[in-house]
Amino acid sequence: MPELPEVETIKNILEPSVLKQTIRQVDISLKRMLEGCNPSKLNTLLKGQVIKNIIRRGKYIVFIMEKDTLVIHLGMTGQLTTSHTSSITSNAKKTSPENIQPQKAKRSIAGYEFPLLRPIEDRHTHLKITFENNSRLLFRDVRTFGKIIFHNGHNLEKIPRLSKLGVEPLEMTPKEFLQKHWPIQNNRNIKAFLLEQSFICGLGNIYVDESLYFSSIHPLTPVHKISRDKWMSLLSNIKKVLQKAILNSGTTFSDYRKPDGEKGSNQEKLKVYGRGGQPCYRCKTTLVKTVIAQRGTVYCPHCQIF
DNA sequence: AATTCGCCCTGTCGGC
DNA sequence: TGCCGACAGGGCGAAT
Q1: What is the C-alpha to C-alpha distance for residues A213 and A220, in angstroms, rounded to an integer?
Q2: Which of the residues A263, A289, A295, A301 is marked catalytic?
Q3: Do A277 and A188 form a contact (C-beta atoms < 8 A)?
Q4: Which one of A14, A49, A165, A267 is separated from A23 by 20 to 30 angstroms, measured CA to CA?
Q5: Is the backbone of residue A293 left (phi > 0), alpha (psi -120 to 50) or beta?
C-alpha cells in the first residue's frame, strides 16, 4: 500500500537520521526478500560504507552509498523506522506493545502514544542496519511482499526493477508530457494502465482511484478513447492528488506508518477509495465498489463516464 | 506480441 | 466461541 506519497514521506523523515551514517552491521533474517547478492555476503559488502544520498524512484527508496546502492521496496506492509539500540534495550523493549506479545498488543495499541507506537523489532523485522553511532534502520514487513535489492555501483539504469519505471509524475508537466507522448495508443482500460509502472510510476490502487474521480473518468475507459483534454486534466489531477497526499504525510489505512511511528492523515481526505456504498460528495449517487484489473475499485457511476 | 491470470504472504473480519 | 473462507494488493513470471 505504500505508494509514492508514503515513500516520499518516509524518505524525507528518514533522511536526517540516516544520511552520512556509517554502516557497522547488517542483519537480514528473511533471505528471500533480498535480490542482487548472496544474503550471507550482504554484511561484508555493506559494512563500513557511508550513506551518501537517499532518493525515491516510483515506490522505491534508494540508498546511495560510497560504492554501492541499496534499494528497498515496501511492498504492501513494509515499514522503515530508525531507532537507537539504547532505547530498544531499556524503555521500549519492556513497554512497547510490539515487544510483549504482538497478538495481545494489538488490542491496546491505540492507547500507546509515540514513541511506543513506532514499530520497533519483532518477528516481522527482516532487515536491521546498525550504524556506527548505534542508531539502527529497521525494515519490518508483515506480509513480506517487500524487496531489498543490493546493486554494485551507482548506475540505477542497471537495476532491472528501476530501469522499467516510467516518468516521475511530480517531475512531469502535463503539456510537455503530451507533446512527447500524444497520441497514447493502448487498448487497456485506464485503471490497469495507470497501475502499470512503466508509463507513469508511483501510483497504486488508492491514488489511481482518486485521480480518476477528480478527472471524471470511468476506470474502465479504454486508454485510446481518452481525449487530449481529458489527459491534460488527468495528468494534472494525478499531480494534485499526490502533492496533497504528501502534504498530509500519506494515507494510513492499516500498516503504513511514518518512520516516527505516526500515521498519515490523507485517509480523511479521500473522495472514493474506501468509500464504496457511500454517497458521492459531488452528486450523492452511491459509489460503486467493484474489481478492475484485479484490484478493488471504487468510482462514482454518475460523475465518472467513458 | 500483448494481455491476463496466479501466486507470493499474514492478519483481520464476517458468517455460520 | 471457534473455525474457516474471503479479502487486502504490488509486481513478476507463467499461461493464453
Answers
A1: 12
A2: A295
A3: no
A4: A165
A5: left
